[in-house]
Amino acid sequence: MKPTRREFGASALVGLAAKADRKISGGFVYESQERGHRLRDKARFASPTERVKIPVVIVGGGVAGLSAAWRLQKRGFHDFVILEMEDAAGGNARSGENNVSAYPWAAHYLPVPDVKEVLVRELCQELGLLLPDGTWNERWLCHSPQERLFLHGRWQEGIEPSIGLTKNDVAQYRQFEEHIAEWHASGAFRIPMDYGLDQAAAKARALDQITMGEWMRREGLYSPYLKWFIDYSTRDDYGTHMEDISAWAGLHYFAARAPEDKGPLTWPDGNGWIVKRLLAKLAPFVRTQSMVYRIQQQRKTWQIVTEKALYDADFVVFAAPTHFASWLVDPAPPRWPIDSAPWLTANLTLDRWPANHGVEYAWDNVIYNSPSLGYVVATHQNVAMHQDRTVWTYYWALADGSPTDQRRILLGGDWAWWKEKILTDLQRAHPDIRQCVSHIDIFRIGHAMPRPVPGAIFHPERLRRARPQGSLVYANCDLSALSLFEEAQSRGVSAADYVLRNISSTGTR
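RE: above sequence
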C-alpha cells in the first residue's frame, strides 16, 4: 500500500514551505526485508559448500539466542553455534554510533529487576550493574529528569498528564491505580510471565477474552487523559492500540512490576550495551550473514541449511521469530497464531538543541496525541556539563490499521517521505526542529514485536510451543506474546537448560 495522494500532497506542501531549511542527509539502515520475503516465498537459494557436524545450533542471534548461548557457556558446554541472518547479532537490541554519540536502534532500557527476577539479576551482577553490596551502579541508573510530556503547548514533568485535569480525571487515575495494586498483589502478573500463569485464576484468564478498551469501559474509566495514557502504553510495549490488545496484556504492562523509585537502567546505546558485553564472550560462536533457509529432520538429527554451510545437529534452539518456523521447518508446524506489529525507529543527529518551553529536556520525551511514541535522548547519560550536539532516537508504532496494511505503508514510503512525517510530528513541540537536524537514519522493522490480541495469552498453540519438547526447541520472546528483555532471556535460558538435560541423558555431551 503506497502513501495516499493526500499524504504525498501534504508532504509536498511541507517541502515547499521549508525551502529555506538546511539540507538533511540520511537513509534507511538494516534493510533486510528482501531476504525475509525470499524465505516467506520459498525462493531458491545457493547450495552450501561446507558441512559441519555440531551438537547444538541456535537459530537467531537476538537476546533470546544470545541468552541461550550465555547459559550453555556458563554451564561449561561449548559445542554450539549461533546462526544470525543479519550483519550483526543483537536483534531489536542492536545499536549504532556516530561522531556525536552511541544510540539504540530499538530497545533502550532495562527495568531494575526485583529480587524475584533471578536470571536478570544474575546477568546484572555479571555486567557490574548490580554491585556486591546489593546496590545498583548509579552510573547506569537513568539520570534525572527521566520523563516529560508535551501537553497544552508546553512540557510537563512525567508522562502521565497532569495539566488541565478535572477532579473526575484525577479520581479515575486513582481508581485505575487501585485496580493495578489489586492485580499486582494477586500474583497473576509476573516477570517472566510463566511465573504468574499458574496463579492466574479464572478472573485473570477471562481478561484475555476482551480488549483493554473494553475492560476500561466495564470499569467506568473514560477520562480522555487516562485513555490516552493507557493507549500510549499499549502502543509502546505492543505496537497496538488498547482497543485491539488483550486486557490481560494491557494490565500486565502495569501490574507485573513492583512500584520502584529507582531505575530504569539505560545507556547511550540502549540495550546494545548489554549485547556488546554478551558478544565479547560469545563472539567465537556467532556466524553472521548466515540466513537459515531450511531446517529438516533426518532420522534423529536435524539438518540446518544456509548458503554457506549445512549443519548436522542433535538439537535446534529456534530463537528467531516463531512465525519463521512455518517457512523454514520441514514438515511445517501449525500456523503461529500471534501476529506482529510494524515499527519505525529513527536516529536524528542535531547540531543544536531546539528551543524549549516548559520543564527541561528529559531522557524520554513524549508528545500528547502524537501518532508517534516520542524520542529518547541518547546523550542523556553523558556526564559532560555542556553538550552542543545530540542524538535523538525516535519511535513510531504503526498501529492505525491491520498489521499487514501498516507494513505496506511502512515499506511504501521512501526515505524523504518518512523524513517529512517525522519532522512534521516533532514540529508540534519543536517548531525550529528543521534548523537543528543535520542527519536522519531510519530503521523499518516489519515484525517488531508480538501483538497479544484477545485470546493470544492462553492460546493452546502458544502454550504448547512455550513448553520445551522434542529436539527442536522454541525460544523467542514471542512465545510469551510480550516483547520484553526479561521474556527473551527467560525463553533462551529455559531452552538451553532443556537441551543440557537431554544431551546429558543421551551421552551426546
